[in-house]
Amino acid sequence: MPCSQKATTIREHLADLLLHAQVFFQSAYTTVFGWYATWLFLRTQSLASPVLVHAFCNWMGFPNFAAMVSGRTHGAAFEQGGGSLLRKLMSLRTWKDHA
Length: 99
Prior knowledge:
By secondary structure, the protein is mainly α. The chain has 5 helices and no strands. It has helices at residues 3-44, 48-60, 65-70, 76-90, 95-98.
């Protein structure tokens, strides 16, 4: 097998590996978010909380970890504000707890 064919084969295997890693990570992330949304719904007894959290996460998108490591984030304050909102939603109690 010529060297160029070996390099192509290695690149194809690396591309397949990266694709599988991305699919696994996205599936795991979605599963954990589903658990959190379910917990939030059971905790608040309101569909509004998980819907708002889901909309907020879709709006923010997945964090760009490469930019965070290199220090190129311009929205750090905005992301921190989003974290504050999520913490506030996590601390909600049901109306029964307030009675």
